[in-house]
Amino acid sequence: MSTVGTAVTRAEYCVIACAEAWRGAGEVLASPMGLIPALGARLARLTFAPDLLLTDGEALLVRPDGTPEGWLPYRQHLALVAGGRRHVMMGASQLDRYGNQNISCIGDWSRPRRQLLGVRGAPLNTLNNATSYWVPRHSVRVFVERVDMVCGVGYDRAAALGDTARFHRIAGVVSDLGVFDFATPDHSMRLVSLHPGVSVEQVRAATGFPLAVPDEVPRTREPGAEELRLIRTVLDPEGARMREVPAEGARG
Fold first, then answer.
1. pLDDT below 70 — which residues of the chain?
2. What span, in angstroms and rounded, lies between the C-alpha atoms of 19 and 33?
3. Which of 34, 46, 212, 251 would you label with 13, given CA atoms 20 to 30 Å apart?
């Protein structure tokens, strides 16, 4: 996996799909949550998004190799979040057709079957700056008809909030099966591209609600030779991406 000449893996298609979320973003703070999104953000910075800002998650702005390039105190980080100068890619324990996200609990909130992370910053993220989602295992347990608790705000709830949600924007969703957006008349989820080896029928079977599917669905963009070199020899030479998205046929 350290040589560019070998076949592109599903994990590498996921990295490039996550990187594309920041194409044209300009000088905004990238906040990727999870290994694959982090590799995507760093790859975007090294290639087509040179103005992208990266953080160590604590108090520094960093280069793709992790070396410091500036100071980012917590108060300034919050100002970027509240002012919309940030594009976060969060995870989702549940996600519905309008992009409502749950990372708090499974089951009734008053007596949940499972406690998760909690609401955390999801409402502020979704109402103030661009938000994307990363789902490493696309299944009906994640892509549900109705989330058990709303943490990240989806398009239907944002519409009900009126002017309060004027900065709301869910840029897209990347999973281990494909790429999705909400560019439909009612802002319900739409299939944008399939990763190689994945069929529309497979995506539909793993999604717990009717999904908008165009007549022709393209394949996710393949990484170029230089992008593959960066992924395999600079950003992730140990191949940790393969643990988050195993090789095709290895999904449990």
1. 1-5, 248-252
2. 13
3. 212
